[in-house]
Amino acid sequence: MIDLEEVTTVEALEALRPEWSALYERCAGATPFQSPEWLLSWWKCFGAGQLWVLVLRRGGRLVGLAPFFIGSLGEGAPRHVGFIGTGITDTLDLLLEPGLESVGALRILERLAQCSARWDLCDFQELRPDSALLTASRSALHFRIVPQSVSPRLLLPEGTNLETILPPVHRRNLRRARRRLEAAGRFVFDRADAHTFPALLEDFFRLHENRWEKREGAGVLADPAIRAFHREAAAGFLRQGALRLYGLRLGETVIASLYAFRKGSGLYCYLSGFDPEKADYSPGALLLKHAIEEAIGEGLREVDFLRGKEPYKYLWGASDRVHYRLWIAPVASSLPQGSEEIDRSLKTG
Question: Which end of the chain, N or C, is more open, meaning fewer C-beta atoms within 10 Å of its C-beta?
């Protein structure tokens, strides 16, 4: 039997952190965006509305977590149920014990149906194709599923040598870029540790914004609240050994940064930045190559470039994975009826 509890305060959710972390580690298919480091930081920085986290237990052990909240755009507006993290998060989902995905998702859907007087529409975004929410047996509620975004990924077969799987043109371009960088002076690749983390994170913020200022625009990190969120989330990932924050230093100056995370057998590349004045050296590409080679050395099997069809991702041989948006409503007339075209512009930066 699976018991269900509701958590409605951040203090109670914080108290779940040890059990939540243990469940997260048991879920090999989970992403960094289902961790307490990411979601608790998001709620503390951006949370609005009513926290409504559904917790599943079997024999007292935490076996599932649905990190929901209920919000609306104002008095009298429809009440929406969504995932904590919606907006700046590339993958969202329930966190369910391996082997209990289907029964756990069905239990969550049953509670949504039982509490349908408390909400008007569920809007569950950025679900991977294997999400149990997409495949669970349907309840009395009404559902609509549409493609939402594309998340290119590079598979790393066991024993992979990056040089052998790179498309030939990109491989040659990287070799030329490295020769140009070598001619420019001494360079090193840094990876953040407890000592270097603060400075490398600020370098990342600087380089990301410099890149967008060059385009006469503002990137996602221009918002001080977004920066505060990433300071907290990244520090949490660092403590867990999951942060992969890289810098390419030419002389004494960091000229490229990559902000990524490790979970299980995957490397998740969230954002990057480089000095536009050093673009001739292709510093971002060389830094990404270094990060992928480190991932291969760690035995990882996949690089997830996350949502967005930026052309550079396909230079590495990446292929698309489609993410989906799921709407659920107590009555069919409440379901959105818009286009089913994939939204390719969800994350700026």
Answer: N
